Amino acid sequence: MNEQSDILVQKLEKHSDKETFNCFSHITLCALDIICETAMGKNIYAQSNSDSEYVKAVYRMSDIIHRRQKMPWFWSDLVYYVFGEGRKHNRNLKILHSFTESVSNNFVIRLDSLSSDSDTDHTVKKKRKAFLDMLLNATDEQGNCLSQENIREEVDTFMFEGHDTTAAAMNWAIHLLGSHPEEQRKVHKELDEVFGTSDRPVSMEDLKRLRYLECVIKESLRLFPSVPFFGRTFCEDCNINGFKVPKGANAIIIPYALHRDPRHFPDPEEFRPERFLPENSSKRHPFAFVPFSAGLRNCIGQRFALMEEKVILSKILRHFQVEAKQQRDELRLVGELILRPESGILIQLTKRTQKLMPEVPTLLQVLEDHPSSR
Ligand code: HEM
């Protein structure tokens, strides 16, 4: 994550100092590189090669699916393939599947070599095996392992769920901070306390200390939940507010609306990260804030997502001051699969005056490392 966000900062640096630009795809490509490398073990260099066929296919596919969702006459496969974009849909799917196929084939080969290897570096292998293990050792009720096809489907889900959601969330956070200088100042203050003038990578310890930034991320997800709605089927008869809901009925949950309930979030349109400080949120209803859904099928990547957002946002904000160049009503939200701004996020970046330096060891550290020099 640190390496990829360094590449992102270098790219953003080219736009800094008073040029208005759209940061949406820069952040998205960074998130894509991160998910491919961390979860899939394969670098696709999306940041340096935004022309990659896979990257282009991801964008085209979101658009194609959204268009079909909006046109009920294309919901029938027959009509869609004869009169609609069915063939375009299939062409794109082929590109996406051949990529994930190559990634998941890699998986099996790597797992084989890892499990037969008697190397002594146990902990590293254990960590690297975690996700592979989960997929390859997963069994159904009858004890059957996942087929190659099943694994590819899981890889597909991870690739989509794992980058588009975090990318949108980070873009919204950048817009909100860029429109709220006071809140941005508080983030900068926290970053200076944690990192000082050092340009060192973000550590797990740092992540725990970035409490205000975490509140900013949550408040951004409240106002702009990356997954604006999701569906569930009632598996038993229910009574909700005096209404009988029969088993089998479908429900659409809309976090975008739920998160604006003034009983839980007074002045709901206001951006107030302090709402998520422990003292202000511990008594809140557990389902008042559900950007990652809730219950059995909630998001399995939520801790990863928060970690990734903290790493990337802290890197950007350690280097730059952000100014948003759009008003809220100019953003024009599009609730495709993911909640996005129609024409991206326009910002201006100014390099922070505080000079960031590579970590320099303190005198005490030097003496501890070289006791003979005492
Ligand atoms: C800000 C970032 C994210 C948000 C807002 C988010 C939101 C959600 C939501 C609302 C669901 C439930 C969808 C439904 O029920 O239809 C979900 C499911 C899921 N998410 Fe995320 N997600 C995020 C990041 C991630 C990441 C980084 C990963 C992977 C590393 C991930 C993997 C998944 C998977 C695999 C599921 C399906 C779980 C299941 O069906 O049991 N998500 N996510």
UniProtKB/TrEMBL annotation:
Q: What is its EC number?
A: 1.14.14.14
- Gene3D superfamilies attached here? Cytochrome P450
InterPro entries for the chain? Cyt_P450, Cyt_P450_CS, Cyt_P450_E_grp-I, Cyt_P450_sf, Cytochrome_P450_Monoox
Its top-level enzyme class, in one word, is oxidoreductase
Instruction: Tell me the keywords, alphabetical order.
Output: Heme, Iron, Metal-binding, Monooxygenase, Oxidoreductase
| Catalysed conversion reaction | androst-4-ene-3,17-dione + 3 reduced [NADPH--hemoprotein reductase] + 3 O2 = estrone + formate + 3 oxidized [NADPH--hemoprotein reductase] + 4 H2O + 4 H(+); testosterone + 3 reduced [NADPH--hemoprotein reductase] + 3 O2 = 17beta-estradiol + formate + 3 oxidized [NADPH--hemoprotein reductase] + 4 H2O + 4 H(+)
Q: Does the keyword tRNA processing apply?
A: no
Query: Is the keyword Metal-binding assigned to this protein?
Result: yes
PROSITE patterns given for it? CYTOCHROME_P450
Family stated for the protein in its record:
Belongs to the cytochrome P450 family.
Function of the protein: Catalyzes the formation of aromatic C18 estrogens from C19 androgens.
Q: What is this protein called?
A: aromatase
Originating species: Huso huso (Beluga)
